[in-house]
Design goal:
Blueprint lengths: L1 H7 L1 H6 L1 E7 L7 H14 L4 E7 L11 H4 L3 E2 L5 E2 L2 H9 L8 E3 H14 L9 H19 L4 E6 L9 H14 L3 E8 L2 E2 L4 E2 L2 H12 L6 E6 L5 H11 L6 E5 L7 H7 L2 H8 L11 H11 L3 E9 L9 H13 L2 E9 L8 H5 L4 E4 L8 H13 L4 E4 L1 H13 L7 E2 L9 E5 L14 E9 L4 H6 L3 E8 L1 E3 L4 H7 L1 E6 L6 E6 L5 E4 L14 H14 L3
Parallel strand pairs: 1-6, 1-7, 2-5, 2-6, 7-10, 10-11, 12-13, 12-14, 14-15, 15-23, 16-17
Antiparallel strand pairs: 3-4, 8-9, 17-20, 18-19, 18-21, 21-22, 22-23
Helix pairs in contact: 3-5, 3-11, 6-7, 7-8, 13-14, 14-20, 16-17
């Protein structure tokens, strides 16, 4: 972007402090949780904070990635398909993220190439340094132009030393120099326990920091992920050989739930250490009472309730991360522990459905795409409907509820979605009109926040207590309105309608204890402070179902 674009951020740069979070030794150490925890602690002291994730893969966004590759794709209000870590950011901070909060290498290169094609570089040879690194720095600072933030935390995906991460680390090195005491680096690393030796080993951490130093970046704080407590002498050793103060060596020991991490980091004084590194002397008091109350309810339930999650990616829990976290929020709101049974829809049949779902007080059929496992989902819906078990269908889960009702109540033989069967005689689910001419896969679905008008007197009207709601979407197919009257007469009502396009957003069965299907994704908007009301009410229905009659 050059000097001109740098000038745009001069004012904001003076006010905003930047924290960069890197990781070493192995992936999946929990950089996202540490980033979200630190942000929550800073927020509890009255600061405005946002977090962004920079992913080193070349995909433009995670929208086309197989869930087995990358876990769920999280969708923001403005329709960005993003990394699942943004879900953690929102759940911890209770503020929405946006397109600017997640950037991939693919998007960085795409932007630079587009500028080169337009002639923005005036014939310069376009190189990784300075053009790619300048674009990364621009993205790192972009959030400062979206609002006044006291802190912007940037999580760098991957591990230090990866080839694909090098431009990001170089950008951090440059920004660190440019921002002075307004920037700090946290390095998350592994301190493994070797059972054979009977001790924790600090050498992997030393090597990880050494790699970071070779790239010109000295970490200010080292967070050591470990399954055991780190002794004082080991902390001293890490501090000595990694050029940090002893109080800047912070341990992150495995905990029962991720929601304990902010309080553990508070006990380790992570936020105060970081603030002092950033030149903040007068540190405001911290108020984590809301968080502590939530954690108390979470860890001290009055009972348990069993709910089945029926999906086709259940081998990888991260594929349904937001749903599982929403159950935790809703469970705590009801003072109950939700025990989720993950059921693989591909292996559900008419013969074994009772075995698979017996003992469940609620059944959720998960979102997804494609034909694999679809019949198992339909069978699961039928089991919930015929046995009066509370049911929640999300996106494809709502669509299979419609298909099941069409086949087994309306007796529409061969009823299906055109996504699965283009020749179905009864396309009760059809492709959206706006999607008919779309050929590309990435970022082309109906994405982001859309309004929905709730029918008075319906089950969902008692959930939301509002006539007009807004929820996030990610789909191409919709309820076929040609069948709406037929469904209504048989007892499946359209109780939520998009007021602008007449799209059916919510269906429910009137003569059932609690049977709701939604085209949108309520799980994307559930947070610790504001559990989603649809999940709260669904869990309440499941609890009521579990109690002896």
């Amino acid at each position: 972007m050059g000097n001109q674009s740098n000038a745009i951020f001069i004012r904001n740069m003076k006010d905003t402090r930047y924290i960069f979070v890197t990781g070493g030794v192995v992936s999946s150490l929990g950089k996202g949780i540490i980033s979200a925890s630190l942000a929550r602690l800073l927020q509890a002291r009255g600061y405005s904070v946002t977090i962004q994730k920079l992913d080193p893969y070349i995909n433009v966004d995670p929208g086309t990635l197989n869930p087995y590759e990358h876990g769920e794709c999280f969708v923001t209000d403005d329709g960005a398909e993003t990394d699942l870590d943004l879900g953690h950011y929102e759940r911890f901070l209770n503020i929405p993220t946006s397109q600017a909060n997640n950037v991939t290498t693919g998007r960085i290169y795409q932007s630079v190439i587009e500028k080169e094609r337009r002639g923005d570089y005036l014939g310069e040879t376009v190189q990784i340094i300075p053009h790619i690194t300048d674009e990364i720095k621009y993205r790192m600072r972009l959030l400062a132009s979206h609002g006044k933030y006291d802190f912007i935390i940037t999580e760098i995906g991957g591990t230090v030393g990866d080839i694909e991460s090098l431009p990001y680390i170089e950008a951090v090195r440059q920004l660190r120099w440019e921002l002075g005491n307004h920037a700090a680096v946290i390095h998350l690393t592994l301190v493994p326990y070797l059972a054979a030796a009977g001790e924790l080993k600090t050498k992997p951490t030393q090597h990880s920091v050494k790699t970071l130093l070779e790239l010109g970046v000295q970490p200010d704080v080292i967070v050591c992920r470990s399954e055991r407590n780190i002794s004082e002498s080991q902390r001293n050793k890490i501090a000595l050989f990694c050029n940090v103060q002893q109080d800047a060596v912070v341990e992150s020991v495995d905990v029962e739930t991720i929601y304990e991490v902010p309080l553990r980091m508070r006990d380790q004084k992570l936020d105060t250490v970081v603030m002092r590194k950033l030149g903040i002397i007068d540190i405001p008091d911290s108020d984590m009472k809301v968080w502590e109350d939530f954690l108390y309810r979470l860890k001290n339930p009055v009972g348990e309730v069993n709910i089945a999650l029926v999906g086709k990616y259940v081998e990888l829990k991260d594929a349904y991360k937001s749903i599982l976290e929403s159950f935790i929020h809703a469970g705590a709101a009801n003072h109950y522990k939700v025990k989720v049974k993950l059921v693989h829809s591909e292996f559900v049949t008419d013969e074994n459905v009772v075995e698979q779902l017996s003992g469940m007080s609620g059944i959720l059929v998960a979102p997804g795409f494609g034909e694999r496992g679809i019949e198992g989902k339909i069978i699961s819906v039928r089991y919930a409907r015929e046995n009066n078990i509370p049911f929640l269908g999300i996106c494809l889960g709502m669509q299979v509820a419609v298909i099941e009702f069409a086949r087994n109540v309306l007796n529409l033989e061969g009823a299906h979605s055109r996504e699965m069967d283009r020749r179905t005689p009864h396309p009760v689910i059809d492709i959206m009109e706006s999607q008919k001419k779309v050929s590309g896969k990435g970022g082309t679905m109906r994405l982001g926040l859309y309004p929905c008008k709730i029918k008075p007197g319906s089950k969902v009207s008692e959930v939301y207590h509002e006539e007009l709601i807004n929820e996030r979407h990610r789909h191409r197919y919709e309820f076929n309105n040609k069948y709406i009257e037929m469904f209504s007469m048989a007892g499946m009502l359209a109780t939520g309608i998009n007021p602008n396009e007449e799209l059916v957003e919510i269906v429910e069965i009137e003569n059932h204890p609690w049977f709701v299907g939604v085209q949108f994704h309520p799980e994307y908007r559930s947070t610790v402070e504001n559990p989603h009301p649809l999940f709260v009410r669904f869990v309440k229905a499941a609890i009521d179902c579990s109690k002896p009659k």
